[in-house]
Amino acid sequence: MEKIGKDPSMRELFLLRNEARDRLMEFLSGISSWPERQKFSHFLKGSDANLKRFDDLAESLKETLALIDSAALKDKKYFYKANLVDGWEAARPAEEYLSAFFSLLEKTISATTALSADSEELRILGDALNMPSCNVGWNEKTRTIVTEAYGPREAGESLMAYINQIARCGPVHASCADCGVMFMRKKGERQSCEPCSRRHQTYAYRKQYLLAKKKEYYQRNKTRDEEERSALQGAKTKKGAYDKE
Fold it and tell me: For residue range 125-138, what is the model confidence (pLDDT) as tens digits?
């Protein structure tokens, strides 16, 4: 994805990329309890699989949620049910949202991938952003507003914030060069997810890699030698024709 605006300094870039990782982790943690999440293998390998789930925070929210007037919020319970009572389903199946969200992430990895303004992914994202906000409450201890669950609108807002952030610093996620699954880059420009990177360090993989390279070099040298012999034979034939003349 192409960066916009003035190039940030090294320190600014470091801070921007850390903030982008936080936004991506917020999105991934939020959708971790959604139905059908396991159908998508992206961000489920290595340390990406150990992100704190949103509904793991339910215990810390109990006191705040107890203060919310459930009657006043009754018509807003649209979110995906995740260890919550009387949660209503969203307008679309979870799989449809997830498919669009992950497709957007894939298309923002490369600056050359086109994304039209009327694409299906953006239309679904727009639908998510136009949904009513989740049940909310006030946490007096932390002086923050908390939500009862993480629905499509919250996911859409987190995803949009991340995509807009990486327009300044570049993506902190990538597609694994080996298995194709998306993963989060903790640092640098790593090209493989953690499991594939570990596999690259095994004796069996390195042996197979070296054998493949040896075969490649042999074939390359063989082709080069054949071309040189052919060129030499052609030169001799041509010289012989001149001598006869």
Answer: 999 898 876 666 67
**Same domain for 232 and 138:** no
- 91 falls within a domain: yes
pLDDT digits (tens, 9 = 90+) for 111-125: 777 778 889 999 999
Cβ atoms within 10 Å of 58's Cβ, excluding its own: 16
C-alpha–C-alpha distance, residues 218 and 130, integer Å: 60
pLDDT value at position 62?
52
Tally of domains within the chain: 2
Q: Which domain holds residue 116?
A: 10-192
Determine how many CB atoms are found less than 10 A away from the CB of residue 134. Answer: 20
Residue holding tokens 């957007």?
Answer: 104
Q: How many residues in total does the chain contain?
A: 245
Q: Is residue 30 in a domain?
A: yes
